[in-house]
Amino acid sequence: MTAFAVTDNLDWTVSKRSLCFMGNDGELVKWPSKVAVVRDDNGKCLGAVSSDYETVQNQDLLKLIQPMVDEGVLTVENMGYLSHGAKVFAQAKINQEFQVIGESYKAYITLLNGHIGNASVAIGPSATRVICGNTFAMAYSGLGEKYRHHVGVNDKVLSSTAILNYVDGAMKKYSQYVDKLATTRCTETQFRNALESIYNKDTKDIRNAKQLTNLFYAGKGNEGKTFYDAFNSITEFASNYSRKSVAGRLNYSQFGQGAAINQRAMSVLTEMATV
Question: What is the mean pLDDT of residues 257-268?
């Protein structure tokens, strides 16, 4: 069975090492056309490749998304490896304020790599979450950019703009939505109607309706005037007041019920603002 592991880091490296076989005289003979790819942390041999094979280290691949992770634009949600590290994967999502802008931006930003000869580097958005060998193959088949491990592959990978273009497209689209919300007047009655649509219940049954209304008028940067103030009140509540602990608020706003509410908020408020 193919070993599958999810991890919070891929901080190990690989190196190419000589392969030898036993000659007729009992002496070891170096195999000149093949080398082994070995995990440096545990000495595990991942496969045999040609001598001109160029490795792409895990951390070099992750450089494609790390700056955006550090800036809070992306969140890594799924990372790990198959076959003891012969194939590795990392998947990130655009953070919630960009996820809510539409279906086309709900895919995983996916990085796949193989430390064996039959797996290229693959980069791009994918709707498939990698959870096993089969889903790794499905994600791999759908990615638009693939680079074989020939000489110069690292330069090609690090010069890829596929992820940056994808994220920039999402941010541009989001900006268009925000511009509409920020320039359209929202009354208190419209805000209450929006809450009922977003939470799918009467205002009197929304436990935090009073606090959300206060945030609409006096939340960070809010004045209670526009649909963007309305949207900010909901996202600010999710991020800062929804749970007692920091971890609880993060889970609620990024992955839990709060993330779904934020998405509905953008949809509902945008529709109301365009009427």
Answer: 85
